[in-house]
Amino acid sequence: MTLRGAWAGILLAGLTLTACGGPDTPTGPTDPPVVVAPTVLSITPTSGPTSGGTPVTISGANFATGATVTIGGVAATSVSVASGTSIQATTGARAAGTADVTVTVDGRSSTLASAFTYVALPPPTISGISPSSGSTAGGTTVTLTGTNFASGATVTIGGVAATGVTVISPTSLRAVTGARAAGAADVVVAVGTQSATLARGYTYLVPAPNPPPVITSFVVQSTRSNAPSNFADLGEDVTATATVQDAETPVSRLTFEWSAEGGTFTGTGASVRWRAPTAITAPAQLKVTVKVTEPLDGASQSVSSTVTVRVHDSIKEISDLSVLFLTEFSEQKLSPENIIRNFYAGCPGRNEELQDVRNNQTNYTITSYKISQPTSATVNFGGTCPYQNKTGVDGCVQTPSEWKAIDKRTGLSETSIGTDQTTAVYRESRWWLCDSNFNGTTTRPFSTFIR
Question: Which of 207, 272, 338, 402 is such that its CA lies 20 to 30 A from the CA of 232?
Answer without folding.
Answer: 338
